[in-house]
Every structure is written in structure tokens, then in C-alpha cells.
Amino acid sequence: MTTAGTVTGKSYDQVFCGLGEPLDLKRAQVEASRCFYCYDAPCIEACPTGIDIPSFIRKIGNGNVRGAALDILGSNILGGTCARACPVETLCQQACVREASEEKPVEIGLLQRYATDEFFKSGEKPFRQAKSTGKSVAVIGAGPAGLSAAHRLALLGNSVTIFEAKEKAGGLNEYGLAPYKMTDDFAQKEVAFVMSVGGIKIEHGKALGLDLKITDLTSKFDAVFLGVGLGAVNRLGIPGEAAEGVLDAAKFIEKIRQVKDLAKIPVARNVVVIGGGNTAVDIAIQMKKLGAEFVTIAYRRGVEQMGATHHEQELAQTHGVLIKTFVKPVGIVSANGKATGIELEYTALDGAGKLVGTGTKFTLPAEQIFKAIGQTLDSENLVASAPDLKFQGGKVSVNADFSTNLAKVFAGGDCTGVGEDLTVTAVQQGKLAAEAIHVKLGGSLESLPNAVLGRGN
Amino acid sequence: MADLTCKIAGVKSPNPFWLASAPPTDKKYNVERAFKAGWGGVVWKTLGEDPHVVNVSSRYGGVDLNGNRMMGLNNIELITDRPLEVNLREITEVKREWPERAMIVSLMVPCEEESWKKILKRVDQTGADGIELNFGCPHGMSERGMGAAVGQVPEYVEMVTRWCKQNTRMPVFVKLTPNITDVRIPARVAKAGGADAVSLINTINSIVSIDLDAMAPTPVVGGKGTHGGYCGPAVKPIALNMVAEISRDPLTRGLPISGIGGIGNWRDAAEFISLGCGSVQVCTAAMHYGFKIVSDMTDGLSNWMDSKGYKNLDAFMGRAVPNVKNWNELDLNFKTIAKIRQDECINCGLCYIACEDTSHQSISVTNRKYEVIEEECVGCNLCALICPVDCISMVPQETGMPYLPWTKHPNNPMRVS
Hints:
The complex is a heterodimer. By secondary structure, chain A is an alpha/beta fold. Chain A is built from 19 helices and 19 strands. Chain A folds into three domains: 20-122, Orthogonal Bundle (Fumarate Reductase Iron-sulfur Protein, Chain B, domain 2), CATH 1.10.1060.10; 136-231 and 377-452, FAD/NAD(P)-binding domain (3-Layer(bba) Sandwich); 233-374, FAD/NAD(P)-binding domain (3-Layer(bba) Sandwich). In chain A, 36% of the residues lie in helices and 19% in strands. Chain B is built from twelve helices and 20 strands. Chain B has an eight-stranded parallel beta barrel with strand order 3-4-7-8-9-10-15-16, surrounded by seven helices. In chain B, strands 5-6-14-11 form a four-stranded antiparallel sheet, with no helix packed on it. In chain B, strands 1-2 form a two-stranded antiparallel sheet. In chain B, helix 3 crosses helix 5. The longest helix of chain B has 15 residues, at 294-308. The radius of gyration of chain B is 24 Å and the shape is globular.
């Protein structure tokens, strides 16, 4: 085991530079000119937050970047992060009619990034809390769902208190997205932008169950929004999992994101990542960038079943990561309590389409083994905090308006059983829940169209 | 291989592609580069009397469209700003060294016979093949009673043309301004004055844009701007119409035409020739891409002519003229209907919203499938023009109805039976 300090010849700034060059004005305008300005555009339908994509692209093309940015931020207050982290190739860009006609969609993600980055440079804070409704709402969790809910609630005139267990706000934007996607402390800048609406305060170090009880909150606030995300990690359930060097990918990324001196991050010569999702790709690329020599992603099914998009898989491969499919971990090899390798077994689909082990095994050397096999709701704390809260499939059960079975309690984001576990989906659910809460508390949404365009309330 | 040899008003050139009188033909250096690249001829940038004019700095303004640069160009340059002597010497040298290329000299002097006599005598001695009278320049010179100021007064056009014909051996091309209401009038008087050919169009009076920071027209000259001459791809439709008007006017039919206006490739050239042009003149495209573009022009025209079986330019020159009619001669019983080729449709919905918002509500939509409501479609072409993947065909319908022009239509109170 060595540390990242062995990265030579390049500065960490270079190693961690963001993915895909951002567009400059000229390139943004050329790309914008490729948009057909479709009627009833499929890309809008494919965006979980329903951003009017043709409209913002046309505005970029016509030099109205402020208008473009407000089109985006009015629908998705975390549009800056989504421009970096959204799997656009399975959302808006997959729906783009240019994808159908020439397999080269308009670069919607890059254009969104251009518009939001340029707008943020201006330092303008366009959103203002409306005249007070006198209502107060508690938001649990300062991740994408919580921030989105808080912003929309404040915009509509409610006062909001966010309770966050961690030191910083941002949730996965701050702790979970791979650093190479979120350079330059972007998540914290975005949090500051969200807070600039006014009427939101954040109390850090307050975790549900440990420090807070939902019943206390419902008596103190007019409504409660749960946006706690997924805190627990799935286990491999194989012998030797406790060995040193067997790590949780999400937690490790969190560590990289927060560490002051990147040179202190331990980096193995041989790294194996178990899993097939975007987190698996994130950690694999990240370790490669930090200097790991051999990085292998081991996935139990084929490339088609991988949660990581084709684009992400390609990214891993061009970074020199080997993707090994149809293998499953069966044991950790260790010496003196430290992992030295992982034993894998080939898998295959049987006649009924069920995945089975073939009995043929092999061992890969690995001093670091990352588990990236999905996260689950840390329901222990939730249950302790609200024994009557209803769950479904291990996640918080919500109605169409994101209300839960408890009076005054709403939920959104990854902790609920609806929608994909994506930042953009969490933003939308937080937004819709906020509007439902506002209406339930006797408010009206009449002022929204102007408010989201930064024209006051 | 098709013969591209061009002969117009007694002037010969190896191909019909000439550089128009403009900055690219201002001096020997440029013209020789053009001839080396393969241009068939040039119209030397307009000569005037000494002392030569003075030009401003900041001379051109452009119009971009959706990231494409210079769909239109305007300029506020005047005629040559070099001494007459220098130009005449260089013209002589170039003509001597490139005898088979067409050398036309553009001229603009005050509206007095003596001035014209004097300059014609000197141009005669250069060995040039012809002269072109610049009656078109819409800025700078017109305020001094030259250029468009002459071209807009039919009597002057005829008078100056006659003076020139009486004072030179060279064929006279009269360059017409489009900044008038009916281009046939100056063409008719040019012919009456003895013109051997007309050249058109000169540039269109224009302000291409306002610089919203400087609050002044572009090109901005020290915080101010002025109107200039507009050219480039954007003006081609205007030029084609004016050429067609002259070609089909019984009073000017057969008058040789050198076509000008937005010509950038062989197809543009073929269109002008099909409307009766004997040669074509190019400027903006060369200024945009350099002289090399002539290789595609000659090559493309030749290949197209081969594919159509046209052996030489005469074989298709003017072929489209009989099909240019007045509106009241068009068949009102002709019917065409839009047809969307569903397998090529990318579901952008632009045809639908155009028809729904601005036309005849003849396209239906169900789950992003767009279909033409045939009984509502008036065959306007809008959807077909908009479709970004060109998957809409306009299909002429067999109506079984006879030819019916407006002149005979029952709704026309003035109809003739």
C-alpha cells in the first residue's frame, strides 16, 4: 500500500480537473445552433425536473445567458450540479431528436453547464423569499431533495429550518459525487446560492433518531420534510469481508472529497471494485487518477445490465480500468488481517435466466477492495424517530403528493420508494413536495411563474 | 466533358466565372492570384479620376445566421483608392500576361462627356476586353453624383452609355443598381443607349446591424456609421428575380447579362445561367473563402452539365426563362399535398406547430406521430421547408381539372372567357 503522494509529473489540480471541457461562448453558440427548438420537445419530457431545454438553448444562442440560466434554475435549483452529474445520455440527450436522426444529440448537459456557470460568475442572487406566510417547515437532510424543498418553500414565503447530521450541507453533491466531477468546491458554492433566497437556516450536527424526533418536530413546525437519503451500505456477505482494505466506495469518496491533503489518501497498486453502477465507475476512475496501477471492476452480470451508463463504462475504459463481467466475489484473501486479493467465481445464466455460479474460480491480487453494490435506507434511526412511519420495499412510503402516512410529514429523494435514485429526481421530488406542503398549509402557487424567473414574488 | 468556354458581348473567357469589381480585383497581385487559381476573368475594381478617393478604416459589416458567418455582407468602401496611372499600368501588364482571360475594367467618372472620353482613351490602351459602367454603387459615390445617382435616372443611364459607345472600341457592360422599383427600365435604356450587355445586381442599400453598445450602425467608424452596399448569399433571390425580369422583358430579350448577387458555388451559377446569364460574377464567396473556390465552381458545373447532357453553356442558357410567369398565368387547378415519410420522421414537431400556429391546421398529432390531414392541406410547402431532416414531400395531385389561370377564373370580375 502506498499513498496518493506517488502521483508524479502532474499536479492534483490536473488529475482532478473536471470531466469534459466546459464550453466557451463560441462553442456554446455553435452547439446551441444545433437545437431544432422542437415543439413539445422530448428532452423536456425526459428531464425529471422538466427544464424547458429548447427555450434555454435558444436563449444561449441569442446571447441571453441570464434568461437561459433562470429557465434552468427556475425548474431545478441545483441545475449546476445536475449539469455535471446527470446521466444525460439516458435522460434528455437520449430523447434528443438528433440522437434519433444522427446519433449525435445536442450537448444539453454541457450547454446547461455553460449557462449556469456563466450566470454564477455574475454573482447575482435572483431569488427572493416571498412575503411571509407565517408558516414554518422543518427539512431533515441538506441533500439535493432537502435543499430543493427548502428553496421552493422559502421562495413561496415559508420559513425553513434544515437539520443536517453532517458538518456541511449538500448531501451526495458534497460527499458522494466523485471529486473529478465536482471540482472547485462547487457543491458549497451552490449551497450558498440556494441559501441566498433567504428564510432558510441550517442546524448542523442534528441527526434524526439521535438528536431529533419527528413527533417533536411536528409539534414545533407546521410541516416536516424528510430528505434523509440512503445512509447504509449493502454488505458483500462473503468470508473475510472484515479484512483491512475492504472498503465502502461511497464512504471512501466522501473521504476523498473532504480530505485536505490528497497525498495522504491511501492508494493500492491493485484495486478491485465490486459493483456495476455509477459509484463503481466513479471510484474506479478516481483510484486510477490517484495512481492505482491495476483497477478492475468486477460485475456479476453483463455490460447490458450494468447500472453505469454506456458513457460511464467507456469513460472507465478510457481511463484504463478493466471491466470484468459475469464474475462474483466469493471470498477475500488476506494476510495478517490485511486484504491481499479477492477470489471471484465465474457466473452464467441458467436455462431459466437465473444467475448462477459456474464453480470456476480465480483470484485477483487486490490490496484495496471497494464495495459499490448499492446503498439502502438507514431505517433504524428513522424507526426510532417515528415508529409509525410506513415503509415500502425498505424505503419510506409516499403518496402522489409526497405526503407520508404521518400527518404533516412529507418525504422525497432517495429515501422514498419512488423514482430513480438520481440527484435530478431528488430535486424534483423536493420541489413538488414543497409545493404540496405550501398548498396544504393554505398557500397558493400563483406567484411561482414570476418568482422562478427571478422577477420577485 | 462539357465545354465551359464563355462568350458574352464579344468577350471570351475559358469559363463563365469572373470576379466582380470589388476589393479582390483592386490590383495586379490579387488578380494574378485569381487567374492562377483558375478564374475565367475579372472586372477590375472601379477606376475614377485622380485625385483618387480616400477610404475609411472599418469598411465591412456582416450578417451571421445561427452560427454561420457572413450570410450577408455590406461594405462602405468606395472605388479604387490608388492612382489611375498605377491601375492602368497593372491592367496592361496582367492582360499581356493572361491574354485568354477576360479583363473588364469598371469605370466611374463624373457625368460629363469629356470625363468619359478622357478615361476611355486611356483604358483603350491597356488592351482590356471591355468596360463596365458602375451605375450602381449606393454609397459615398452617389452623394457625389456618380454610381447609383446615375443608375437611378434612366436618362442619364442612356446618355452615358451612348457617350461610351461612341468613344471606345470595347464592348460596354452597364452595371445596374437594384435600388430602384423596376429594374427593367434602366435595362431598357441601357440597351437603347447601345449597351452590349448589362451586369446585375450591384449591392443593395443597407444597414446590416446596429452595435447596441455603440448605438451606431455597423461597420462603426469612430462611433458613427452609414448605409452601405449589401451582398452575399442573402441577396441571391433578389438578384435572380431582377435577372429574370430583364430576360423575359420583350424589350430587352436577348440582351447579354452578366449575373451577380450571392453566387458562391456552381449551382448558384447554373441558376443564373438558366435565367439567361452569359457569365457570372463573384465577390463575397471569394472574400469569405479565398480564390480556390473556383475549382469547385468549374468542376461542379462541368460535372452537372455532363450529367444533364449539356455540351456547352448555350445548351442550357436561358432554359428556365419561359417558365418564369406572371402570377396570373399560374394554374389555379394545380394541387399539391404534403406527405410525411414516417420512417424518416424524428418527431421534432416543428411541422405541426408551424401549421397549427401560422397556417392551415392540417397536421394532426397523436403521441408525437405527425400526420397530414389531406383534406385541409393547401399545399403551401411551409412544413416541407421547415422539416430539419427533409422528410416531407410535396406530392402533386392528379385532379383531372383543366389549366385555369386567374385571368379566366370565375372569381375574377375582369376575367376573359
